[in-house]
Design a protein that fits this description.
- The chain is of the alpha+beta class.
- It contains five helices and 14 strands.
- The strands form three sheets. Strands 1, 2, 3, 4, 5, 13 and 14 form a seven-stranded antiparallel sheet that branches. Strands 11-10-9-8-12 form a five-stranded antiparallel sheet, with helices on one face.
- The chain is globular.
Length: 292
């Protein structure tokens, strides 16, 4: 599938801010065999006084922008075209779940995609007793690693309720799980925590998801949003697979990847600092437009 992605971020300040500095992770990148970015343009209004492009440890594209003069509003616009392949797995040839710990111990690489980085607790995805017990209840004797990952993702989808107003970006995964509601970020952090609690390496994926309007209704511009799902390691032979517990499905050709990390802290779309007074307002609009 070919897509055009449009992202608009707007930040308005009650008083002009001085020395604003921001770091963005919103640029999709090429992923061998899965995703090809044919064009991408990230622009700012007003243009920053400094701009620098780089990559973090996990290979995610980063854009640093700095404004030295006072600004009352900052606009960020992304326009990109992406070709996305089918990521859904075929036959389940993954390792038996009981053998996963041995395979991890024999894995000698510490490259960014090594499973070792995604097994320990992180700030936003730490296993708790309740989450680990829930995960263990989904396991079956003789189950493959992929079977365990899928069973847990589907169980969380049944157990949790999507509620855009129930949590915010700082809500702990344990709290969202205890209340059984949240958004895609919460679903993903809970699934990651559950998988890590039973010894399955898991990480966070940030990106875009093509959405569909109700039957007979026109597609609304700006109605899409950035999305999050889970990446889990199913053994040396299968490697990483991606599952979306929010929508109860593998991440297929409707998903466009922006970044990988241990949790949201590794791939926030925007993080920054500014000097000023008063509050601020922000807005986001996303369009994922199929071109095929």
């Amino acid at each position: 599938m070919r897509y055009e992605v449009k992202l608009k971020l707007t930040y308005r300040y009650n008083a002009p801010s001085d020395h604003a500095r921001t770091l963005l992770r919103v640029l999709p990148s090429d992923i061998a065999g899965l995703q090809t970015v044919t064009s991408r343009v990230l622009s700012f209004d007003p243009p920053p006084d400094e701009r620098h492009e780089s990559r973090d440890f996990f290979g995610n594209g980063m854009t640093s922008a700095v404004w030295h003069a006072p600004v009352a509003e900052i606009g960020v616009t992304l326009n990109a075209r992406i070709e996305r392949g089918l990521a859904e797995p075929g036959l389940d040839l993954s390792s038996p779940r009981e053998e996963l710990a041995q395979e991890i111990a024999q894995f000698r690489s510490l490259a960014p995609d090594a499973p070792h980085h995604f097994l320990a607790s992180s700030r936003r995805a730490s296993p708790t007793k309740a989450m680990t017990e829930f995960a263990r209840a989904q396991l079956q004797p003789g189950q493959t690693a992929r079977g365990a990952i899928e069973a847990l993702g589907r169980a969380l989808h049944r157990e949790m309720r999507f509620d855009a107003g129930a949590t915010d970006v700082n809500t702990p995964a344990a709290e969202a799980f205890a209340n059984r509601h949240g958004v895609c970020q919460d679903f993903s952090h809970i699934m990651i925590s559950c998988l890590r609690g039973v010894g399955i390496p898991a990480g966070y994926v940030s990106g875009f998801l093509r959405t569909y309007p109700p039957p007979g209704q026109p597609r609304l511009e700006g109605a899409d949003a950035m999305h999050a799902w889970v990446r889990a390691w199913a053994g040396a032979e299968t490697g990483w697979i991606e599952f979306d517990p929010t929508n109860d499905q593998y991440a297929g050709e409707d998903y466009i990847t922006v970044g990988y990390g241990r949790d949201y802290d590794d791939v926030p779309p925007l993080r920054g600092a500014m000097r000023g007074a008063g509050g601020q307002q922000s807005a986001q609009a996303v369009d994922v437009i199929p071109l095929d």
